[in-house]
Write a structure and sequence with these properties.
This protein is mainly beta and 165 residues long. The chain has one helix and eleven strands; from the N terminus they run αβββββββββββ.
């Protein structure tokens, strides 16, 4: 009976946390786009490429681009490397590698935590001006040195208007 409770409790906490996240993030005037993709069985396979399509209408505004990472506290590394490909509306490609630092030098998790779950919003590109209107296709691929990276729960993209200084 106790083992069933131990298995159900993290799932319940995760569900409550997701509902709270949705409720609090729904009223953000700077957000242009935000979407997170669940990682099956909390193990990000190297073959599992995550895609996000962002429609950009304003080419004059500056935007901040973030990578969202939710992981369990049992994640065995201090960072997560991600290959990111952007396909512009005209078909041009841009590729980048991002190191998502999830823990500090002392091994303490960064981001916002709730028990066993940690959320990180990593600033990837600040003050970006999109050159074209249309749909930008973003693709993420985990770039760690193993086939499956354990304890990654979901990964996402956030595009927001940069705050004027």
């Amino acid at each position: 009976m106790n083992s069933i409770k131990l298995k159900i409790l993290p799932c319940l906490l995760y569900a409550v946390y997701c509902l709270l996240f949705v409720a609090l993030s729904s009223c953000d005037p700077n957000r242009v786009f935000e979407d997170n993709t669940d990682i099956p069985d909390f193990a990000w396979d190297v073959k599992n490429k995550l895609s996000f399509d962002v429609n950009i209408e304003d080419t004059t505004a500056l935007h901040n681009l973030y990578v969202n990472v939710r992981h369990a506290s049992h994640y065995p590394y201090a960072n997560l490397f991600v290959f990111i490909t952007i396909e512009f509306p005209n078909g041009k490609l841009s590729k980048d590698t991002l190191e998502c630092k999830l823990a500090d030098e002392a091994g303490q998790w960064k981001g916002e935590g709730m028990g066993e779950i940690w959320d990180n919003q990593i600033l990837w590109k600040p003050n970006v001006k999109f050159p074209l209107t249309g749909t930008y296709h973003f693709e993420y691929e985990q770039a760690m040195r193993e086939e499956q990276v354990p304890f990654i729960m979901d990964v996402g993209l956030r595009v927001e208007k940069a705050k004027k200084k």
